[in-house]
Amino acid sequence: MASGSVAVQPTIRPRESWGTRLGVIVAVMGSAVGLGNFLRFPGLAAKYDGGAFMIPYMIALLLLGLPIAWVEWAMGRYGGTKGFNSAAGIYRAIWPSRISTAAGVLAMVIPVVIYMYYVYVEAWCLAYAFRYLTGGMNLGLDPAEYDKFFAEFAGLQENGGAFSSVVHFGLGSAAFFLVVCFLINFYLIYRGLQKGIEWFCKWAMPTLIVCAVIVLIRVLTLGTPDPSKPDQNVLNGLGFMWNPSTKSQSFWEALANPQMWLEAAGQIFFSLSVGFGIIVTYASYLKRDDDIALSSVTSAAGNEFCEVALGGLITIPAAFVFLGPEVIENPKGTFELGFVTLPNVFNHMIFGWLFGFLFFFLLFLAAVTSSLSMLQPAIALLEEGLGLGRKASVAILSFVTAVGSFFVVYFSKNLIVMEMFDFWVGNVALYLLATFQVILFGWVLGVDRGFEELRRGAEIHIPQFFKFVIKYISPLYLLVVFGAWCYQEFWAQPRILLKIATEPVAQAAVGFLILVIMLFAILVTQSVRRWERLKQLQQEVVP
């Protein structure tokens, strides 16, 4: 492959870089550690029979998560040495083709669209933390009160309901805290790589881990709060998390569910922040001989600690002890466990307001470190692809994401828009991009050449076996699981397609996604043309 044919420095701006090795590790870890670790992972584990879910989860970690993380770190640093920081530029530096351009569009759309609804959930976390600190979450012990509050607060009852919550809750409204989160995110992203992202992650990651450990200690010392229900104790709560076959279906029936395998793999993508095009961008700011093998394993290990040892051990056992297994097994929605069940749990505890504040504050910190990483890929494209300055790039991206978030928040009834965005971008597009990246590394760049990049400057040895995994097993794994999921979602039980056919809001959400894809297709195409012009100028200067 003539991978160097577009390897021209796209701009003459001073090149950004990470300040320290620790800085890039905590930044990537911060990108990975997010709401999925403390809410999505425990929810999926409970939904899919605890121990049964952990099998596809661990398999996906070994065959997809770590290999794709290595792929993205290696390709990112490789593209950075060619002068590119955006995923679109990096893909074309490896393979100058229309397919790479299309993948570059996906790498922009995925993090930007996810940010549009992720920042809204981030605002919920900040609002809940604020309300716990000020006594606003003391709603008693009736579960219905928490359900009612969340429905009104998030606007689940009617479109535009989240904005009407300003009237009900004033400064505690979801819309108010959404604005606050937007300002925090774009202030930090405007400050740049070192002074913004790296600075924030360096203090946010230790702080959230300390908060999580304090809450975990409290959960593990709960014992049996209600003597009349001796089975609802901490040990049984931990067993509910890890032991398979706690539900009516058998262990093997649980393992035969393709949806569980897809969601386990999707959780690994969210956990390690792979498949988004984020790590590719982050790694491009590294120096040529920086250790990416150890850095990638360190950030992945830190994330898994936060997810399994903290998130999994806090949420499920606490809910089990106070409310019993039936509440966990039958959630009403995606956010039921985090924003309805857990607030009720904290109000059963002594000093519950303090532990509730610590929990939702750590969620907020984790959400910010993740949402910052979702903005940087698009900033990199606008700067190097269109030649814009930081201020103009931030202004454009803030406008685009604000429009998208307004769309999500206004059409908030039953969170249909959020569901559509997550389905098409957080599942379908994410799998397509992850598959492309593995094939690009293993078959276009070449697995031998890719491992040379990965091992340069490395302080650990990655086993040769993973060459075979990346080239053959990972893409096959992705295609088989994704194919089985597509059969179930689009043929056997076409729930989403039926919703699109019957729900005008769902149709509007799909139309909005098409507009976003078209926007970034134009931006990436213009960037490619600019890079080609720069290449021609370079060839004219250097005969």
Secondary structure layout plus pairing:
Layout (H helix, E strand, L loop, with lengths): L20 H12 L2 H13 L3 H31 L5 H8 L3 H36 L9 H12 L6 H9 L4 H47 L13 H9 L8 H5 L2 H15 L5 H6 L9 H31 L1 H5 L6 H11 L5 H35 L3 H21 L5 H40 L9 H28 L2 H8 L1 H38 L2
Helix pairs in contact: 1-8, 1-13, 1-16, 2-11, 2-13, 3-4, 3-11, 3-13, 3-18, 3-19, 4-5, 5-8, 5-16, 5-17, 5-18, 5-21, 6-15, 8-13, 8-16, 8-17, 9-13, 11-19, 13-15, 15-16, 16-17, 16-21, 18-19, 18-21, 20-21
Short summary:
Helix content is 77%, strand content 0%. It has 21 helices and no strands.
Report on the architecture of this protein.
α3 (about 50-80) crosses α18 (about 415-455), α5 (about 100-135) runs antiparallel to α16 and α9 crosses α13. The chain has about 550 residues and is mainly α. Residues about 1-10 have low confidence and may be disordered. It is built from 21 helices and no strands.
Key attributes of the depicted protein:
0% strand; mainly alpha; globular
Order of helices and strands: HHHHHHHHHHHHHHHHHHHHH
Shape: globular
Q: Counting H and I runs of at least 4 residues, what is the number of helices?
A: 21
User: Any idea what the radius of gyration is?
Assistant: 23 Å
- The proportion of residues in beta strands is under 5%
Please give the number of β-strands: 0
Low-confidence stretches: 1-8
Given helix and strand content, the structural type is: mainly alpha
Q: How widely separated are the two ends? A: 22 Å
Global mean pLDDT: 88
Biggest pleated sheet = none
> Percentage of helical residues?
over 70%
